[in-house]
Amino acid sequence: MPGPVLLDESAGALRALRAVQALRSWLGDRLQAIEVLGVSAPAGGAGPQLHTPEGIVSARHVVVCAGAGTPRLAAGVGLDIRQHYALHSRPMFRVRPDYAAVPMACWIDRSGEHGERVYGSPAGSSGRYAIGLAGEDGAVPLGAGGEVPAGTDMGDHVCRVAGYVRRALPGLDPEPESVRMCVATSVGDRLDGFRAWQAPGVTAVAGANMFKFAPVLGQLLAEAASTGELPAELAPSAGSAGAP
Ligand SMILES: Cc1cc2nc3c(=O)[nH]c(=O)nc-3n(C[C@H](O)[C@H](O)[C@H](O)COP(=O)(O)OP(=O)(O)OC[C@H]3O[C@@H](n4cnc5c(N)ncnc54)[C@H](O)[C@@H]3O)c2cc1C
Predict the structure, then answer these.
(1) CA of 67 to the centre of ligand 1 (A)
(2) 22, 93, 94, 114: which has the fewest Cβ within 10 Å?
C-alpha cells in the first residue's frame, strides 16, 4: 500500500472470551443469570429493588451495565440517559490455507485507498478473520429506543466488506463464512469513552468501546457503588446526557 503505515508491534486483539471466563470463575455460584425486568427505588429509603421473573431482589447498591438495555432500566430510578444506537455488521472470512501459518495482525485502514474504511482482527486462533466497516457510513443509525428503521438492508454492508477483502486482503477467502450483527452504543459525540449516572443506591454506566476500559471502569464503578458518589472520571460531561 502506498502512503504511510503505522505499525504498533505491541498491539493486539482483546481476548474477550478468556477475560469473561476468568471473571465468571472468580464469582462462581455468586453469579446468577436472571433477566431484570426493572429497577426501582421504593419510597421509604429501603434501597433499590430489582424486579426479576424469579422474584424481587433488594440491594444496597445496583450497578446497571446492561449495554443497549441500560437507559430503559435506569429510567426506573429517574435517570435520563440518552444513548445512541447503530446497527453494525461484522462478516467473518476464512484465512486461505497458504496463509494459515502466518501471524495475523489487527488491521485498521482509514486511507480509503481500497474503496472502504475498515477495521479487522483475527478471531482467536480459529483461522478466521472478522472485518467491519469504519467511519460514519459503517453502521445504520437506529431509533431513539434502538428500533431498526423500516427498509434497512444490512446485506449491502456485507457486500461492501466482501468487496474490500477481494481488493485488499489476498490472504482471506472473500466469501463471508458468517456474519455477526451488533448494536453499537455511544453517548454524546465520543467514539471511545464512558460516562456514569447516579440516583440514590443506583449507578448506571454507558458509552462506546468500553471493553478496553474494563479494568479501570471496574474500579471506578466499585468506588461509585461503595461510596455512593461518582468519581470525577465517571461524571457526565455537558452535552453527553443528563442526570436529573
Ligand atoms: C461491533 C462491535 C465492536 C466493538 N469493538 C470494541 C473494541 O474493539 N474495543 C472495545 O473496547 N470495545 C468494543 N466494543 C464495545 C464493547 O463491546 C462494549 O462497550 C461493552 O461490551 C459494553 O459492556 P457492557 O457490560 O456495558 O454491555 P454489554 O457487553 O452489552 O453487556 C450487557 C449484558 O447485560 C445483559 N442484559 C441486558 N439487559 C438485561 C436485562 N434486562 N436483564 C439481565 N441482563 C441484561 C446482556 O445480555 C449482556 O450480557 C465493540 C462493540 C461492537 C458492537
Answers:
(1) 5
(2) 22
